[in-house]
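Posting this for the archive.
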Amino acid sequence: MLSEHRTSRRNVLKAVGGVSAALALGGAGVLSAAAPAGAAPGDGSGLRIVQRDEHDARMWFYTFATDAIGWQPAVNVLLPDDYHTGDRTYPVLYLFHGGGTDQDFMTWDRLPEGGIRAWTAGKPLIVVMPDGGHAGWYSDPVTSNSGPRNWETFHMAQLMPWVEANFRTYAEHDGRAVSGFSMGGFGALKYAAKYPDRFASVSAHSGPPSLRRDLGAVANWANVSAAALDLAGGTIYGAPLWDEAKVSADNPMEHLDSYRDKRVFLVAGTSPNPVDPFDLLNETEVLRGQQEFRAALDGAGIAYEAHEEPGGHFIRPERARNDIDGIIARLKKA
């Protein structure tokens, strides 16, 4: 797991070096707003299925055409073992991957010892795992030079309605959870804050909860990584000056009350690899950000479950299993 991430990190850091100067000089991007998409019949999602594979009893695969994204994003939908033997309705978990060239909709299925399939075996839960870009940051960017990359629009305005029209899920607050790793953990916290009526549980596995702390370290990293990997010099939040309204809208720390009465689950590493600059800087920022976030939740009287674990920036299987059990306990029962 760690070695795979290191390969990706080198690519990211190399690419970042090539775009940092352009961002500092205010390199411009082309505005890339989501255009209306032709809706698939009956679901109103704006998605058209391009590929599908439903041969596996549990893991179904799709790619879509959508005007929100300039290529064809993919989604894995993991079904409960007994989905095909009855007519039960199930709660659903939207599970997001991290950033980097080795991260995509298959991340959670590639993990050792069966990954997400093993962790959910026999459990009454549908898991939806969509593409989020190499550095899409679960956002609609301020600028893009590579066509539309409107991941928030795709996930929240298109994919969720499609899932609820095509699978037996509870289309309500107490029927949905959102979770993710790293960039995906930020995306989970962000979506739960921006759409508080949609999710009853939110989890961040090594996900940063603050865009503004440490002189905007995470917002700046979102800009630089997205410019290098996804947007051909465009940015998530604008450069050299941020779109301050967008940063505030996306910043979990500025929407604490959105987490009230939700299940909140946080994991951070306490001992990143000191000879891996990416791991050291990334998980150090995550840990300090989560500590600040927890203090703010304490001050607001909002409950949460938090874990500080040895190691750095990687998915911890035992905590992922704990999270899944907690999600099932919190959501509406199948």
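The two ends are 33 Å apart (CA to CA). Confidence is low (pLDDT under 50) at residues 1-42.
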